[in-house]
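hi! just following up on the protien thing from before. the input was this:
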Amino acid sequence: MGGSADLKTTVGYAGAALALEDWAWQLQHGAEIPFPGKEPYNTESDLLKEVKSDVDAGIAKNNGKPPRILIVGALGRCGRGAIDLCVAAGIPESNISKWDLAET
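and the predicted 3d structure came back as:
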């Protein structure tokens, strides 16, 4: 098992996954219906498959427009994990704003 550096990257990855799934959920169900709890995934690929599917559905519901994302702390481990997930989920790099100390 990896050390805390690995955990921080994973936390950013998982947090971004939940954020994208919530974005897609709200587009499809409205903000009035709470985003349901999630169970752990067996593998990273299972997580990514579901996130990609949800993002694709959200983009379709959003007139073909992917979300615009702001990642604060983009140069840190959590931020890098969040960026990795967004890119893997198909979010165009041009839709990902990456802020760190210089931008805040």
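The first helix runs from residue 4 to 29.
The two ends are 34 Å apart (CA to CA).
cheers
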